[in-house]
Amino acid sequence: MAATVLLVDDERFARTIYSDYLRAAGYDVEVTEDAEAALKLLRERTFDVLLTDIVMPRSDGLQLLADAKQLDPDMAVVVITALDRVEPAVRAMKSGASDYLVKPVTPEALQMALQRSLSMRSLLAENTALRGHLTLYDTCQRITASPDREGLVHVALVALAAECGAAAAALLLRGEGRWTLVGTHGMSLAQGEALLRAAEPHLAGLAPGAPAVLESLPDVAPPLPARRGVCLPVTDGAEVLGSICLLLDADLDFERAGRAAFICRHVGLTLQTLGRLSQVENLAYLDDLTHLYNTRFLDVALGRELESGKPFSVLFLDLDRFKTVNDEHGHLIGSKLLVEVGRVLRSCVRDEDVLARYGGDEFVAVLVGIDSGAGLKVAERIRRAIEDHRFLSREGLTVRITASIGLASHPEHARAKAEVLDLADRAMYRGKRTTRNVVYMASKDLPPVTGR
After folding, report:
1. Residue extents of the structural domains in the chain
2. Measuring CA to CA, which residue among 316, 357, 321, 323 is closest to residue 340?
3. What pLDDT is stored for residue 356 in this prediction?
């Protein structure tokens, strides 16, 4: 396709000679005699090169240069000047012109100037594209380097909104039979939930390379900051993991849609990677036998609750005379009983509470946001549940067992995590040394545990 040139010169002879030169060389040339007509053409279509005289009776070539650059910063501009008017040409070069020619202009000089300008324009376009690719690469690098899902959601939504000129964005993930909102950018969570409800009927047909379009957005207060939405598929190969919904005022062009799809594929890849890492971390934090948490996670959970600044309670539980179960029925049956104790404990606490096997037949519960008064009720509920439960009935046995439980609360009894755990342990041992099958509250006068 021939390069397009807009030639501006007030001299009819110059316009004829230069345009003949350029057409003979294979250029597509439009000709005008002043800046006003040139600007009208520049607003109507795109040119590769503007070739203009600087000094014209009714026009200012420097102003035309500035106006043309404002319309199309990437357009190459070659200026023509008389031999005694070189100084304006220098100003034109400083203002963005790519070359200048001194009259009289030969065909060879004209062709060389245009070729240099087009080569420079092509190089600048390549550099712009390269910078765009590097920016896209950097964005995807930051996405794949996200340490957790929360960080991934923030980076991905901000990047896609900026890339596509979206007013707002939301990440929706596909779960077991339903979609959930996991993050928003540029809108509230309430607006995101409204968007999810509006988008959900369209998400069933979402497939790689096939986004869903929302022609109208839900009526919420305050209103969503755009007129329409597009739901881009977040994929890992052929599997659709979720969707990033962008709120837009105009359709995505081909280039932006391709870059957005590229980012979404990296989001999908990172989601899968974080999911696998989470599974590995969970295995590292789980007790092999009971699948409750282990002491490594207990330490993390206690640290997390201390950082929150909210009250919490710790229950330290030990099964009474568990050694008798092992002696009478064997260690395999004893292990099965411990698994069953874990199930009983889960039934007595909330999902946000933390249950851990401390070792052997000892268990710890961290009761989130619960003071000693409420913690005492939970401990008593656990004690009665274990006392009333018939263990190992699936194995054809009826084993009865009880538990001694110690309770300590933060900040009432202690402020350090090691201390609150130690006081709960001391309280539990006080129960073991007395009646067993009892709940004891921590106090500062409890003797330390020895001989464990």
Report:
1. 4-126, 146-280, 295-441
2. 357
3. 97
